[in-house]
Amino acid sequence: MKARYFAWVRERIGLAEEEIAPPASVKTIADLIAWQQQRGENYAAAFANAGAIRAALDRQHVKAGAPIAAASEVAFFPPMTGG
């Protein structure tokens, strides 16, 4: 699965994108965020406030409980405001 990172999530991790292979126990976006937090200090910093992270699977915004099984791409970004 390709993981893409935007804004301060990208800055804290130090990557714009990467290929990830989460374990089979990771089934939802919330699980994936928890797994990411364990991958190192930079990931822990990026995902420290898990409630503030937004996600998209295959370019569709999803909630934390969304299953990731069939997705080929996940994107993580902070909340956005518009005008």
Keyword list:
single chain, 83 residues, five-stranded mixed β-sheet, 3 helices
The class by helix and strand makeup works out as: alpha+beta
Q: What are the secondary-structure elements, in order, as H or E?
A: EHEHHEEE
Task: Please estimate the helix content.
Answer: 25-40%
Number of helices: 3
Bulk shape: globular
> Roughly how many Å apart are the termini?
33 Å
- pLDDT averaged over residues: 94
Largest sheet: 5 strands, mixed
Description:
The protein contains 3 helices and 5 strands. It has helices at 7-13, 29-37, 41-46, and strands at residues 2-5, 17-19, 54-57, 60-62, 73-77. It has a 5-stranded mixed β-sheet. A hairpin with a 2-residue loop joins β3 (54-57) and β4 (60-62). The longest helix is centred in the middle third of the chain and has 9 residues, at 29-37.
Topology:
Blueprint: E1 2-5, H1 7-13, E2 17-19, H2 29-37, H3 41-46, E3 54-57, E4 60-62, E5 73-77
Parallel strand pairs: 1-5
Antiparallel strand pairs: 1-2, 3-4, 3-5
Question: Could you write a compact summary of the structure shown?
Answer:
The chain is of the alpha+beta class. The protein contains three helices and five strands. The mean pLDDT is 94.
